[in-house]
Amino acid sequence: MKVLLSIKPEFAFKIFDGTKRFEFRKVIFKNPDVKTVVVYASSPVQQVIGEFEIDDIISDSPSDVWEKTKKFSGITKSFFNKYFENREVAHAIKIKEAKKYENPLCLEVFNVVPPQSYVYLDY
After folding, report:
1. Does residue 44 have a cis peptide bond before it, meaning omega lies within 30 degrees of 0?
2. What is the sign of the dihedral through the CA atoms of 44, 69, 76 and 99?
């Protein structure tokens, strides 16, 4: 199963250049069968630019997640801390293999609207 995630362009492109090997989330999908993340680069790009396979999902306290992921987080510690402020649990999706699309796609291809967090895909 695949899920579509909205990711800020600066972070989305880091996934495909290999400098960001974890995608951080406050809320993680409930379906354990999700194996692939389709990446929607949010405004101003507003295109689906690629996908990646999920290696693992780390769910722990924010401080422990940071310690386990900081080397390849693709973000600063201050950004991480602000994002997870007042949260007891942080989730980090470990990226196994990322594939950037040669030609970005519009969301209409997937028949979905830009998700706040994520949306399951039926294909």
Report:
1. yes
2. negative
Per the prediction, the chain carries an average pLDDT of: 96
Q: Under a CB-based contact definition with an 8 Å cutoff, are residues 66 and 77 in contact?
A: yes
118 bridge partner residues: 5
Alpha-carbon gap, residue 87 to 75, rounded angstroms: 18
pLDDT at position 123: 65
As a whole number of Å, the end-to-end CA separation of the chain is 8
Is residue 117 over pLDDT 90? no
Q: Is the pTM of this model over 0.70?
A: yes
Beta-carbon neighbour count of residue 118 at 10 Å? 18
pLDDT of residue 122: 78
**CA 108 and chain centroid, separation:** 20
What pLDDT, on a 0 to 100 scale, did the predictor assign at position 19? 96
CA distance 122 to 48: 16
The DSSP call for residue 109 is G
